[in-house]
Amino acid sequence: MKTYFECIPCFMQQAFRAGKMTAKDDNQLKTILDETGCLIKTFSMQSTPAEYGAEVYRIVREITGVEDPYKKIKEQSIKEAKELYPELKQIIEQSENRLLKAVRIAIAGNIIDFGVNKKFSLKEDVSKILKQDFAVLDFEKFKHSAEKAKTILYIGDNAGESVFDKLLIEEFDAKVIYAVRENPIINDATYEDAVNSGLDEVATIFSSGVKAPGTILNQCNDEFMKLFQSADLVISKGQGNYEGLSDVDRPLFFLLKAKCEVIAKDLGVDKNDIILKDINIH
Question: pLDDT tens digits for 262-280?
């Protein structure tokens, strides 16, 4: 997915938000915004928003020296998600279609995104999504792929959301590899975050090598690329991964909530719609 003009104000907002959290003073914050503005002048609109995002947070990191500005926020998100886990597990167990309910719950966790959302109420938003109709629902294809798969590559997105991913992974019979970011960026899940979410109990946690807020294949390590090509089923979670993988020549499924107008437009849906979309361009 290319970058749209509507993405540019979002990059500035993300730089400002991260800068406010980490800058020592106003001069440092101004430098962050100046550097981000210069980045916008030179960056290609054919690059993905995730590639832009990587550069924005590189600027913040280099200027402030803070490696993980969202660390405490991620820990709190995981804590809140874990508190909901028993109730959500019960909902799945009582459902007539466990897999579909687990998919819905996994997508509900995608609301935890501090790159897009300044505020949200986790319990309230999850409750709404559990009742919301899908804008795109390729469930039968997903179910068939999951049932015949021996290996599943599940590309994670945000910390906290990772707890919701665990609930879906528990419904699979296949071996699951859960891919995370190499380094902290926004509130995306790293290895440490995935372990804190309990994903090591249900999957093998693996770094993709990516330092961006989304999966960019030419930045992934060789081990991830082998898994990406060989896995029987690939699940891409969230907007950042959609940005990097929407044009990839490989069958996979996207699970996400369209939290911004740009993503919604690219998907052909409305903002705030929920999606389980099969991408198979062969």
Answer: 999 999 999 999 999 998 7
| Per-residue pLDDT reduced to its tens digit, 194-210 | 999 999 999 999 999 99
Domain boundaries, given as residue ranges, for the chain: 7-64, 71-279
Going by C-alpha positions, the residue among 247, 248, 228 that lies closest to residue 179 is 228
Amino acid letter, 95: S
Burial bucket for residue 76 (CB in 10 Å: 0-12, 13-18, 19+): middle
Q: Which CATH architecture has domain 71-279?
A: 3-Layer(aba) Sandwich (3.40)
Which pTM was predicted?
Answer: 0.92
Is there a contact between 228 and 250 (Cβ–Cβ < 8 Å)?
A: yes
Q: The tokens of 114 are what?
A: 């501090």
Using DSSP, state whether 79 is helix, strand or coil: helix
- Residue 209 CB-half CA count within 13 A: 13
In the block, tokens 């998907």 appear at 267
Tokens 């990406």 map to which residue? 228
